[in-house]
Specification:
The chain has 5 helices and 13 strands. It is α+β, with helices and mostly antiparallel strands and 248 residues long. It folds into 2 domains: 3-124, 2-Layer Sandwich (60s Ribosomal Protein L30, Chain: A); 136-246, Phosphoribosyl-aminoimidazole Synthetase, Chain A, domain 2, CATH 3.90.650. The two termini are 35 Å apart.
């Protein structure tokens, strides 16, 4: 059995042309408990904790089959609200059939909210990881936001969403998609280039902060052909940030 680690993904070859894709994320001190540093409704914690790992697995081209939530709090009411948020995020992602399992802390009283999420998917001949075979355009979708910058009361039109992700996945010449988290756009862009043995050249007049944390995957970056870029460049929130070029 071959096991690889690429970015935040674990890739397990389970049989010919079939790969298990695993991603995880955690959240701590965010919620409505006394010790939480950032106060938000508990269901929101579940939504955004899931969002990061879920986007990672979906962006790889895998179909999600299992989600595990390790809630470091009691089931009632904290765990129940976190699960509610997870189910809302799955609905937003258009996922209706998935194995959802988890655990809660029932032995000790907790003073802050904590959760760990693991998402598992299966890719069949469609893995878009280290998949850039030729020079490509690099685009970003969304604006870097974190914490209270994100509009939690309604859909935030500034950040990348699942419709953006699925539109990119539907195009054969979108070679690779990377959800951007706390390390920022430039870090993920340079890692994308390195993993594909290429160099990233930035364009002029980039209007987003390339170094700022993107929190719960508020930005996607993608490597795509020039033809695909011409077809997709009118997508809302899409900006050209650079090009991947062969070394040398």
């Amino acid at each position: 059995m071959k096991i690889d680690k690429v970015r935040d993904l674990t890739l397990v070859d389970i049989e010919k042309n079939k790969t298990m894709v695993i991603a995880c994320d955690s959240s701590g001190s965010i919620g409505m408990k006394e010790g939480d540093v950032f106060k938000v409704p508990t269901a929101i914690v579940g939504k955004f904790a899931l969002r990061v790992a879920l986007m990672e697995v979906l962006a790889s081209g895998a179909e999600v089959i299992s989600i595990t939530n390790a809630v470091c709090n009691e089931m009632e009411p904290t765990g129940r609200e976190i699960i509610k948020g997870i189910e809302e995020e799955l609905h937003q992602a258009g996922i209706s059939s998935v194995a959802l399992n988890g655990s809660t802390e029932e032995n000790f009283k907790t003073s802050s909210t904590g959760i760990g999420i693991t998402v598992v998917g299966i890719a069949n001949n469609s893995l878009r990881v280290n998949n850039v075979k030729e020079e490509a355009m690099v685009v970003s979708i969304g604006i870097p936001k974190v914490g209270g910058e994100i509009n939690l009361n309604k859909k935030d039109e500034d950040i990348a969403d699942y419709s953006d992700l699925y539109k990119l996945l539907a195009h054969n010449e979108v070679y690779e998609i990377v959800p951007v988290g706390s390390k920022g756009v430039l870090y993920e862009g340079e890692l994308l280039a390195k993993n594909n043995d290429m160099e990233l050249t930035l364009v002029e007049d980039i209007y987003i902060d390339l170094h700022k944390t993107c929190g719960p995957a508020t930005v996607l970056i993608a490597a795509l052909s020039e033809d695909a870029y011409e077809e997709l460049k009118l997508m809302k929130r899409m900006k050209l940030i650079g090009k991947l070029k062969l070394k040398g």
